[in-house]
Amino acid sequence: MKDLVQELREFAKERDWEQFHSPKNLAMALVVEAAEVVEHFQWLTEEQSKNLPSDKLKEIREEIADVMIFLTNLADKLGIDLLEAAREKIEKNKKNYPAAKVRGKALKYTEYER
Ligand SMILES: [Mg+2]
């Protein structure tokens, strides 16, 4: 992960793009890229979304990479260790969603008795 952060810093620096990488701009770019992922699934049936042709999957792969790149840039700009933050959130989710209570249910933790 640190290698990726470093590579992205160098990529932006070499192009003098750091000036555009405010947290606001990175957050907006992240959402745009996430929408580009979603666009591939728009109007597909559940079944179609599970059986994507390889050319479509290749395009989605690139958009997912864009999401990761902007997410990594945003976290870096805010001084957030992305993997550490994700691990902490998983621990929090384990507490909010005890497997024994929520198994098979898609409710938000505020919608069931803890
Ligand atoms: Mg894209």
3D architecture notes:
- The chain is built from 6 helices and no strands.
- The chain is mainly α.
- Helix 1 packs across helix 4 (54-77) and helix 2 runs antiparallel to helix 4.
- The longest helix has 24 residues, at 54-77.
- The model has no long low-confidence stretch (mean pLDDT 95).
- The structure holds magnesium ion.
- Magnesium ion binds next to helix 2 and helix 4.
- Magnesium ion is lined by residues 33, 36, 63, 66.
Summary keywords:
single chain; 114 residues; mainly alpha; binds magnesium ion
Q: Output mean pLDDT.
A: 95
Provide the structure class: mainly alpha
Give the number of DSSP strands. 0
Q: What is the H-and-E element order? A: HHHHHH
**Biggest sheet record:** none
Ligands, deduplicated: magnesium ion
Sheet-strand content, in percent, reads under 5%
Report low-confidence residues grouped into runs of 5 or more: none
Can you give the helix content as a percent range?
A: over 70%
Number of distinct helices:
6
General form: globular
| First-last Cα distance | 35 Å
Radius of gyration: 18 Å
